[in-house]
Design goal:
The protein starts with a helix and ends with a helix. A hairpin with a 2-residue loop joins β12 and β13. The longest helix is centred in the middle third of the chain and has 61 residues. α1 packs antiparallel against α10, α7 runs parallel beside α8 and α10 packs across α12. It has 16 helices and 19 strands. By secondary structure, the chain is α/β, with parallel strands linked by helices. Among the domains are: 236 residues, no CATH class; 234 residues, no CATH class. 35% of the residues lie in helices and 13% in strands. The strands form six sheets. The chain has a seven-stranded mixed beta sheet, with helices on both faces. Strands 9-10-12-13 form a four-stranded mixed beta sheet, covered by helices on one side. Strands 1-2 form a two-stranded antiparallel ribbon.
Length: 751
């Protein structure tokens, strides 16, 4: 009995002993697992691709981020490389000869107002139209109408001001006429409030007559100077334009010439003074007082628009050039060439008007920034000061009509066309600036999240280390039999990575999709891929988008030309291969054309296979043999052909008009072998590249393109009368599915 009791006691003692050991062991295992988990949490934000700092950021004090998280002071230490680091002042320069001008005439453009139609009314010289503006530190591109219309697709622009604002709008219509004429969608028969629509681009252009910018009323027809007397209500809006502005994407505000006329000034519904009104007991405050208050009210009105989110351009004062007398005292403008910079200066009323504009603009800009509104200065003053030769003078009417000489407005065509060169360049800059801001805002949020996450994880890890250090020390000091358990329970960071591949998916129909460009807007399309030019009857093949498969995959974003150019700023890309590689390069040129056309810097060679552009350079012969090459190599995989009912030289064609399912069409044995060979060879060179700091990646277009038998030129890469019998089922129409390759490229560059 005692023996049994002893055995039972001994048994219970062992049960307790082993239970205690097991409990301690489990505690240690749980503690160790918790520690490993927190270490991973601490390090994942550093290495995980979704929480990676952008190249736009340079952290100057990482220790402060780790020690105390991120606050506003830390963010001040982050240096952001702006897209405008080396920007050029396009408004400072000289006029230089341009024998290629003009780009329209009074015969090709119906929009020219009679009073600016200098050629129609017999101006004898034409040299005044053969000049272009050359900024001091860069070149200003000549106006590109197709590029402009692409940039303003689905947008609207309003010219707000006097007849000089209308002068610029008519210049713009004439410059755009090489691509498209607008239709009249004016809501009134009043010629001072015109609205035009470019239907292909869904772009609206409007002009609003407001010569004094604020509410005004003409009280006398003659007045002291025979030009009328006006009441100006300097603190009241001219609702004829302010009530219409909220839906516009761009506003170009200007004015000044009408402030020379006699005016009576009102504020709070009371007369406070005037300019040359010659009324008894009314103080002469001068035209500059009225202009400053009116400009302030107009800019304040824009800042006060509740739903306005557009960009406001203040077009600065354009000086008149009366010589030999005032405008109503025989003054004229008979010069035939521009001034040089050292031949004239801005002075008198022109200087005063300009300085008032600059000062009021700065105040409005500061206020607008608080609301997220953008104000830009379209500074035409210096350029136009140098153009006394650009006015109509007496050539804005028939010789048998007596009128004052016009040295205020500008002949069309003429130097005012340069204002729209400026405008296009500013819109392009705005597009780049917006892309830059979006990138920086996105990275700023990631920086907050990542740094805060790392700090919290590190703090928790340190706390757990302090709590568990005795047990962990004991655990690691025990028998080595524990180590195999540790190894067997370790896991790699790769299991946390997102496995989505943008190259695996399906084509989905999108009836609202429109091409980023057309054969009219992009001159780089080779005839052999210019399917629309040569009469391809269907266009449905353009309405498909690539949708990556998998629950973790987002939609493939559309190509963003401005953001792409920001990502490759200061870099170069070379397309090395055959005519399909050139096909992709031309697709990229066309996609980027919505922001900028490249300069041709090709090697001096008649061989068109070696055309070299600023953004696309053949930079290497043997990738791994280049000692200084530390770039990135992207292998674009096989692009399948789609000949059906025969081989390429035996009547094969590609007549399909929509994509196919992956199960409907497969690679030929030759294409499959070639594709697998590409992947295999890349893996070999990839390991060698790592040793030399050269990164190799795959742009796997094969799966996407095997499903697009509808995207080839077939017989629409030439004119029917050329008797070309072989169909092209190798290259791709532009625009077309090959544009998706550059969406892939865009995502790879962002990753």
């Amino acid at each position: 009995m005692k023996h049994n009791q002893a055995n039972n006691d001994h048994h219970h003692h062992h049960q307790y002993y082993y239970g205690l050991i097991y409990k301690q062991f489990c505690t240690k295992k749980v503690g160790l697992l918790a520690l490993i988990f927190l270490v991973i949490l601490t390090t994942v934000p550093i290495y995980h691709p979704c929480i990676k700092y952008s190249s736009f950021f340079s952290i100057t004090s990482s220790s402060s981020l780790l020690a105390g998280g991120v606050d506003d002071d830390d963010l001040d230490d982050i240096k952001i490389e702006s897209s405008s680091t080396h920007k050029c002042d396009i408004f400072s320069g000289e006029w230089v000869p341009n024998p290629e001008a003009p780009y329209y005439t009074n015969d090709t453009c119906w929009a020219i107002h009679e009073h600016q139609n200098c050629m129609k009314y017999g101006r004898p010289d034409s040299e005044f139209i053969k000049w272009k503006w050359k900024p001091d530190a860069c070149n200003l591109p000549v106006f590109n109408p197709a590029q402009f219309l692409e940039l303003v697709r689905d947008k609207s622009l309003a010219f707000v001001g006097d007849s000089v604002a209308r002068n610029q709008m008519q210049s713009l219509i004439c410059l755009l006429s090489r691509v498209e004429y607008p239709i009249d969608e004016s809501y009134t028969s009043n010629e001072q409030y015109k609205r035009w629509k470019y239907t292909t681009y869904n772009f609206t252009l409007a002009t609003y007559w407001t010569p004094h910018l604020v509410k005004a009323q003409k009280t006398e027809t003659e007045g002291p100077t025979k030009t009328g007397l006006f009441n100006l209500y300097l603190d009241e809006l001219d609702e004829a334009w302010t009530a219409q502005m909220e839906d516009f994407d761009y506003i170009i505000l200007s004015g000044g010439q009408w402030f020379y006329t006699p005016m009576v000034f009102y504020e709070n519904h009371k007369i406070i003074g005037c300019h040359f009104c010659q009324l008894p007991n009314v103080t002469n405050l001068g035209m500059y007082y009225g202009y400053r208050r009116a400009m302030r009210t107009a800019l304040k009105a824009i800042n006060g628009l509740k739903n306005y989110k557009g960009v406001t351009y203040l077009r600065t004062f354009a000086p008149s050039h009366f010589e030999g007398g005032l405008w109503n005292q025989g003054g004229n403008c008979v010069r035939t060439v521009p001034f040089k910079n050292n031949e004239t200066v801005l002075e008198g009323p022109s200087m005063e008007f300009y300085m008032i504009q600059v000062e009021e603009f700065r105040n409005a800009e500061r206020e607008g920034r608080k609301r997220g509104l953008k104000f830009r200065m379209l500074d035409t003053t210096q350029a136009m000061l140098l153009r006394p030769d650009g006015h109509p003078s007496k050539y804005g009417h028939s010789a048998n009509v007596t009128m004052y000489n016009d040295c205020v407005h500008w002949c069309l065509p003429g130097p005012i066309d340069t204002w729209n060169d400026f405008l296009l360049e500013m819109i392009k800059t705005e597009r780049l600036r917006s892309a830059d801001e979006n990138l920086r805002f996105s990275d700023r949020k990631l920086l907050y999240l990542s740094s805060t996450f790392r700090f919290l994880s590190l703090a928790l890890t340190i706390t757990l280390l302090c709590l568990l250090s005795p047990q962990l020390f004991s655990f690691f000091s025990s028998s080595s039999s524990s180590l195999p358990w540790l190894k067997s329970h370790m896991f790699s960071f790769s299991s946390f990575r997102n496995k989505c591949s943008i190259f695996r998916g399906n084509w989905v129909y999108n009836p609202d999709k429109r091409p980023f460009y057309t054969n009219f807007t992009c001159p780089e399309i080779y005839d052999q891929q210019n399917c629309m030019k040569f009469g391809r009857p269907d266009s449905e093949f353009l309405k498909w988008s690539w949708k990556p498969a998998g629950s973790t995959c987002d939609d493939l974003p559309s190509f963003d030309a401005a953001q792409f150019l920001e990502l490759v700023k200061g870099k170069s890309i070379a397309f090395v291969g055959d005519s399909v590689a050139r096909n992709q390069m031309q697709s990229l040129l066309c996609l980027l054309a919505t922001v900028e056309y490249p300069t041709n810097v090709s090697y001096k060679s008649t061989d068109t296979k070696f055309r070299r552009w600023l953004a696309f350079r053949t930079a290497f012969k043997a990738l791994l043999g280049l000692e200084k090459f530390k770039g990135e190599v992207i292998l674009r995989t096989l692009s399948p052909a789609h000949f059906e009912n025969g081989e390429w030289n035996k009547g094969g064609e590609c007549k399909r008009t929509e994509p196919v399912l992956r199960s409907e069409m497969k690679l030929s044995w030759f294409e499959k072998e070639l594709y697998l060979g590409q992947i295999e060879e890349l893996r070999v060179v990839e390991s060698e590249g790592k040793k030399k700091g050269v990164r190799f990646r795959v742009m796997d277009v094969t799966e996407a393109m095997v499903a697009r038998p509808d995207g080839h030129p077939n017989h629409f890469g030439h004119w029917p009368h050329e008797n070309v019998t072989i169909a092209d089922c190798v290259h791709w129409c532009l625009p077309g599915p090959i544009d998706t390759w550059n969406e892939f490229l865009f995502q790879m560059l962002k990753a």
